[in-house]
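Severity: low
Component: inverse-folding endpoint
Summary: output formatting inconsistent between runs
Steps to reproduce: submit the following structure tokens with default settings.
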């Protein structure tokens, strides 16, 4: 079974959620569990650091869309940064590049003032 590691850290006024490994069917519950913990803190800005995410299944993309919608309802914003080529291609095929605020780096996402 492929693994997914989720590391969450605070940086200034944002929360960075780093995903490492594979977001596949077998570990989406873990991802959603981490997000529910994060959501309880009601962060205003969350940046997904996807530099070390090797693969994302359609269910994983659905989980990220659900996260974005939940944060938006709370007045927050979810951005994705540092997508690998494979993950960026998956986002493009699923048209998530039109849904998410995508950035080349975490630093770029942190400095962005794009509204939620």
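Observed output (run 2 of 3):
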């Amino acid at each position: 079974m492929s693994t997914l590691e989720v590391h969450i850290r605070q940086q200034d006024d944002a929360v960075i959620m780093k995903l490492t490994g594979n977001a596949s069917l077998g570990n989406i519950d873990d991802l959603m569990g981490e997000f529910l913990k994060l959501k309880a803190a009601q962060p205003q800005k969350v940046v997904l650091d996807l530099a070390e995410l090797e693969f994302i299944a359609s269910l994983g993309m659905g989980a990220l869309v659900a996260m974005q919608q939940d944060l938006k309802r709370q007045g927050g914003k979810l951005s994705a940064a540092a997508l690998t080529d494979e993950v960026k291609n998956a986002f493009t095929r699923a048209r998530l590049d039109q849904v998410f605020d995508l950035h080349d780096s975490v630093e770029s996402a942190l400095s962005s003032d794009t509204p939620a």
